[in-house]
């Protein structure tokens, strides 16, 4: 029965191919490797398996698999303050030589003198002036250049890493896992759309048309046969709180079946997602890891998580305990051992 | 040599399969069947072949193959007036019993009395009141229902056909052809985004997230655990003229490589597309067929084509002569014989 020719038989080649592809199959069967086997990982996988199972009553067609993610504090860190705000403050300093009047004008004087108290005293009005001065008055292409240049050069004050490396490895894996199951992954964030587009495709694999954020009114300009789009200081849409479901409806026109945030600014997006028909997934990243990242929630000025945490607990939404559920925070971290509580 | 067994040989089966699939192959090799072999068809195919040819210096990666199409007059007809305006006028009549004051208030009185002269006299202000009364003050889901109900019942005054059948067969074929070549096809139109989304996916194969239009400010509402999004009468974005490249940049964040319109309201979208690097395609539908559709351009109140026609001629953009280049206008039409001029 044993014939050496068997080893040249096409069947052998098939077996060999199968054996060689086994490690890949194993990897495909084990998504979210940076998540400990805690409740959140289980809930994510159960949800995805259910809505992609054609035999489930909760099956969702691929085109309706819309997943929305906040950015600051959900896909990357946001301490000691929003990274885009750090960009704005540094842009004020970089461009100050062209604005000698800033030396004696608030809020710019406070920025130039690193006077955090005076800066805080200028409040939201001051902040809008800083964003106006650094985010507008230029073409969309020029702004993209400024943002990309800063992101390539700037380093985080605590980790010394580029900001685009302070992204959450577990969330990258979740984005990949969802896309592998035909979900369309969107960012819906209070950050400026143009600022996020400067890195979202490269860093998260989210293309520009799936980045939704705060926008300024733009103005199409056509001079000497050259077309450009100018960013003006007038706010068009504040993509925070209720602004999130509003922009989701305006831009996507479908209700998401999965939403992930980390702060009260994400509450309305989660409510909008939760109130659709069929099975839904609502998740919150809870920053509980003072050692590897930061620990903050109800009292934080940045990324306050208070009302949304109450509602999540009340309604049984997924709350990710970063300290116990994430084996690794950043891609550059070594993975910790399993430590499910 | 001739062995009757040959006909049972697997090779024969292969030849048979090949023979049976030949008509399909011919069809695949012959895109745009409702276009005569005129200059426009040639320019479209040459453009698509060039930008999808990996050996061409003008090769464009699939993710950058963004194509934008105006809707009214480009993908469907727009005479005797924009179909959405006909919807608005009929909605005024339908809902009039709930608004007894309209009997004596302009512009509503003019609509109810079919007094076109008095209606025209109320101008843009009147028009905005009509759109406010029929397009806002309801949730986005309720508006979607109204639009779908109207579209399923209303008939065009001249053809007696549903409006959603008065779509241009040659343009449907072009959308399909582009998508088959990994283009992402968007609608960018002065029409209300919600109104177009009510039929764009079913009729054009364009999903809601690829429909960009005029928008009203919306308001997220959360009452008794129910989330909804209310359309308010405040205009958020007028997606006409310069508003088109502005919304393309805001929503898509990439510059299209192909743009198609039919009126001066599309000029800035065409300019924005034209001024990008590499090979570009700019097209205009020229309504020259008074017999099968309508003939109008420089003098028309609806869909005026004047400045854009001059610029197209000057810069060598594609101008489709509907009468001579389209073998068939609507899907329900019989195809005419070849009649290239």
From TrEMBL, chains A, B:
NAD listed as a keyword: no
Keyword terms, alphabetized: Hydrolase, Magnesium, Metal-binding, Signal
Gene Ontology molecular function: hydrolase activity; metal ion binding
InterPro entries: HAD-like_SerB (IPR050582), HAD-like_sf (IPR036412), HAD_sf (IPR023214)
Signal peptide: 1-28
Entry superkingdom: Bacteria
One Pfam family linked to the record: HAD
Protein name: Haloacid dehalogenase
């Amino acid at each position: 029965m044993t014939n050496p020719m068997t080893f040249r038989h096409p069947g052998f080649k098939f077996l060999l191919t199968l054996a060689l592809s086994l490690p890949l199959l194993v990897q495909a069967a084990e998504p979210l490797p940076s998540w400990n086997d805690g409740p959140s990982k289980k809930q994510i996988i159960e949800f995805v398996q259910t809505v992609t199972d054609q035999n489930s009553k909760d099956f969702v067609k691929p085109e309706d698999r819309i997943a929305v993610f906040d950015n600051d504090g959900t896909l990357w860190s946001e301490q000691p303050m929003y990274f885009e705000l750090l960009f704005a403050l540094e842009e004020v300093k970089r461009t100050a030589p062209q604005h000698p009047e800033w030396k004696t004008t608030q809020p710019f004087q406070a920025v130039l003198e690193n006077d955090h108290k005076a800066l805080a005293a200028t409040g939201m009005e001051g902040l809008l002036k800083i964003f106006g001065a650094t985010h507008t008055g230029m073409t969309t292409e020029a702004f993209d250049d400024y943002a990309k240049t800063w992101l390539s050069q700037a380093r985080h004050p605590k980790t010394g890493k580029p900001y685009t490396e302070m992204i959450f490895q577990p969330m990258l894996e979740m984005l990949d896992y969802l896309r592998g199951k035909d979900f369309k992954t969107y960012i819906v964030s209070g950050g400026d759309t143009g600022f996020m587009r400067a890195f979202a495709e490269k860093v998260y694999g989210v293309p520009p048309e799936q980045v939704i954020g705060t926008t300024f009114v733009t103005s199409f300009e056509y001079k000497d046969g050259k077309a450009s789009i100018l960013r003006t200081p007038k706010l068009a849409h504040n993509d925070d709180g209720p602004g999130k479901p509003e922009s989701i409806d305006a831009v996507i026109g479908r209700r998401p079946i999965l939403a992930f945030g980390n702060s009260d600014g994400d509450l309305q997006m989660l409510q909008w997602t939760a109130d659709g028909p069929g099975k839904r997934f609502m998740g919150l990243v809870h920053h509980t890891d003072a050692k590897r990242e930061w620990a903050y929630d109800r009292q934080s000025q940045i990324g306050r998580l208070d009302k949304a945490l109450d509602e999540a607990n009340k309604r049984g939404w997924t709350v990710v305990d970063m300290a116990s559920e994430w084996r690794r925070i950043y891609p550059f971290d070594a993975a910790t051992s399993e430590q499910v509580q």
